[in-house]
Amino acid sequence: MRKVLAGTAAAAVVLSGGAVSAAEDPAAGGDDGWAPVPEEYWAPFDLDICGSTVTVTGGDVREAEVRIEVLDDGSTFTEYRGGQSVDITRRSDGATIDELDISGDTWELVSADGTEVLVELEGPSLVWAVNDVERADADEAGQPYFLHYEEGTVLLRLEVDPATGESLAADTLRADVAEEDEVDLCAVLDEVAADPGDARDDSGRGERDD
Questions:
Q1: Res. 3: pLDDT tops 60
Q2: Where is this region: Disordered (predicted)?
Q3: Most Cβ neighbours (<10 Å): which of 9, 41, 59, 130?
Q4: What's the Rg (C-alpha) of the chain?
Q5: DSSP conformational letter for 41
Q6: 209 assigned to some structural domain
């Protein structure tokens, strides 16, 4: 689970605090540069979405690796791979999605000044929109604000405030996700709240915390 510093339209770009540290020593991680993500990568975080506050927490699958390269122009190219899952809980009613698979490969290119981001997320992945800029782009792309997809690829270009990570502009350059692979997680949380047995998630263990 990546620590979010920058949101997107229909998604959030994820810049791990540990990845920033690793960028200072790109050779760390062996001959091919891959290394386990740092522990802080798995720290829970909150999103204002689905009519409430939603907490995203690292799940039981924690096999993610990261590889980082600082390019000649000062930009940073970061890749993520490996199995990982998350648990999602809505604070207002305790509705929970358990062990959602987000193991798709991801890469991101961040400009030297941290204001421009290009990111590609392969499914299974999780993307969301939490401010007006992001929601407008999600609407234009025809995607739900809290999206999970099993297969496909989403490519996004962002302008962000490097101090806060907030998206100032967002553009979905490509969304190769079939409609049948799209899952609106806000709708899933609503189903869980109404009837825990109807919830859909990667493990089939949707539940409500009473």
A1: no
A2: 190-210
A3: 9
A4: 16
A5: G
A6: no
By DSSP bridging, strand 52-62 and strand 182-184 are unpaired
Token pair 């792309």: residue = 141
pLDDT digits over 153-163, tens only?
A: 999 999 999 88
CA torsion through residues 143, 105, 186, 188, sign:
positive
Q: How far is the C-alpha of 82 from the C-alpha of 120, rounded, in Å?
A: 15
Q: What is the pTM of this model?
A: 0.81
* The CA-based dihedral angle spanning residues 180, 184, 190, 194, taken in that order and rounded to the nearest 10 degrees: 10
Tell me what pLDDT residue 27 has.
45
Domain count, the chain: 1
- Asked if omega into 124 is within 30° of 0 (cis), the reply is yes
Indicate whether 210 belongs to any domain.
no
Local structure of 181: helix, strand or coil: helix
Predicted confidence (pLDDT) per residue in 86-124, tens digit: 999 999 999 999 999 999 999 999 999 999 999 999 999
